[in-house]
Amino acid sequence: MAQKFEVSGLDEYKEKLESLSSSGKTIIAMFSGGKDPATGQSWCPDCVVAQPVVDKAVSQASEDFIYVYCSVGGRDFWKDKNCVFRTDPSLKLKSVPTLIKVGTPQRLEEAQCANPKLVEMLFED
Length: 125
Hints:
Blueprint: E1 3-8, H1 10-20, E2 26-32, H2 45-60, E3 65-71, H3 75-79, H4 84-87, E4 98-101, E5 107-109, H5 116-122
């Protein structure tokens, strides 16, 4: 199974990537709407649908993978056109959920993240 980490915000995400950069493993990052502490569910309906699909792929992935779950924060923060996740040159996120194979152009967005075949393909070497 892949190693799993959970971070919140762009700074934590970048710090985690920096700490994992020498691992030699493939890093898959999931960007999702923040979770309501009371329910544990994201404010983003597409994220809620995609999460079990991604979780299953992570549980079946080899030890050559690292999975980083990153919360993009609350709905109002995300919807701002100047949101750091949207404007960061290394990410340029357009939607959540977004699943990225770090260091490659490979990414899945929105409903693609709920497609088991597509998600499994991202976790292949």
